[in-house]
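Figure 3 (text version): structure tokens given as input.
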């Protein structure tokens, strides 16, 4: 089971890095205006409008893979080893706290010790 969690974690990291790269490569909406005045090359590797469709679809696929792997890791983290506690909360499943030990305060007046006045 641990190898599956490791595999999903690697897939999640790769999808996140790919999504970051794809978002950084895409042009913003303001980039088209500069290209229309001749300050940028209007043609690209994927054509004039092909890159927007390819990059946006690739980003959507990476985002879907990222969210599915996140949900899978959350599910596996919540249900470790198939042990079901019956819907108990985390606080109900916590180990009980041992009762505090009683503290014995010595009687200073009975022992004859000198009292130190508080300042």
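Below: residues designed for each position.
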């Amino acid at each position: 089971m641990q190898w599956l969690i490791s595999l999903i974690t690697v897939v999640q990291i790769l999808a996140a890095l790919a999504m970051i790269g794809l978002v950084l490569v895409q042009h913003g909406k303001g980039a088209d205006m500069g290209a229309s005045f001749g300050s940028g090359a209007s043609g690209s590797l994927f054509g004039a409008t092909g890159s927007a469709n390819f990059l946006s679809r690739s980003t959507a696929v990476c985002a879907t893979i990222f969210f599915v792997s996140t949900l899978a890791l959350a599910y596996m983290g919540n249900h470790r080893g198939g042990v079901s506690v019956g819907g108990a909360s985390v606080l109900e499943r916590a180990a009980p706290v041992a009762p505090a030990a009683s503290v014995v305060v010595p009687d200073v007046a009975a022992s004859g010790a000198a009292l130190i006045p508080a300042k």
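The chain has five helices and no strands.
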